[in-house]
Amino acid sequence: MVEKGCANLFTRSQKHINDNPKLPPIVNGRAKYNLESGKYLKIWQGPQHPGITGNMSLELTVCGDEIVDCKTHVGYLHRGFEKLMERRKYMQCFPIVCRIAVPEPDFNEYLFAATVEELAGIEAPERALWIRTLNLEMARLASFFMWLGGQSGSFGMNTQGQWTVTMRDYILDRFEELSGGRIYHMYMIPGGVRADLPSGFENRLLDTLKTCEKCLDDVELTMFNNSIFKKRSKGLGIIHPDIVDEFGITGPNARAAGFKRDLRKDEPYLKYDQLDFEIITGIDSDAYTRARVRLQEMYQSIDLIRQILAKMPKTGSFFTKLPNVLHWNIPEGQIYKKAECTRGEYGYYLRSDGSDKPRRIYVRGPSYTHAVSLMERLCIGGNISDTAGLMVSLHTYPPEVER
After folding, report:
1. 400 assigned to some structural domain
2. Which of 348, 314, 326, 266 is closest to 96 using CA atoms?
3. Fewest CB atoms within 10 A around its CB: which of 93, 371, 383, 393?
4. What is the pTM of this model?
């Protein structure tokens, strides 16, 4: 399937252009077409909100219902996160980092906290590291549930979306218990976490996992075994293995192309080296395979959360005392930390000049490459009706692009 889809999605060979007269020739890497000829029409898809990918727009050029050119446009959401953080004290940055990836803000909290800790020479206690690992897997599961609803809805399957949004809300109930916030938690800070697990939290979380697992079984039966979903998603948006590294593709998008890469295994952080799991991969590298990989990773996250709860120390400190954070000068230096979020490699670069504010912050989110350069190329030769399903299959968050 990969070879079959390679020509029209990437190489756009001259033979393919001759075989399909709808597609205009390529000049300097872009399609060359004349709108005044009446053969082509320019339309816009998005922005719309709410939605996983709703806060960006696609400028599509079509011939009939076939896409011949695509340009992405962002800037419809809040922007300038990195520069805002460079004007604030370190602890004042936490309300900002959460908003860079709304469905899973916890990866931003962890990475910013981890970079500050390393430069400041601070170590979080053992129990705090376990709680952080638990926090990240809960965020992964909630984010995947939100994506799953978007993927089903993009192909007209709205029932599954209602189920999965409900499951996400159940997980957010646990986050609200843990941090006091449902969406933005601001729970992981330098030195550990803000509070210990509430009494009875583990049992309530285990009950939630049982409910989520039952929902995933139902989704697999009604969505992944649905002939319409299979027909529309199989062969859609094939990512050829040859361009995975060239485009900086990571996470499930790369694993669905057969790449056995996961930072939790390749470069373990927190307590992932003490957990038992395997990297899940696929072969066909299309929208269906990417969805299947993510579904299996959701089951995997449920298992990892159970492992964490079983292995986590029952007592111990959850926080290391910090200096006065309003007058906290971080030693001069620079550091880059990364983690495996639902969409792939998520990284934070922090540069300190010894003052009480970051000198430079740079956030590496996988959405930038997946939603812009990759999406623009995968669209070519596709049908208008498949654009939303293709876009969601890449699992992107526009705030990451606008940071």
Report:
1. no
2. 348
3. 383
4. 0.89
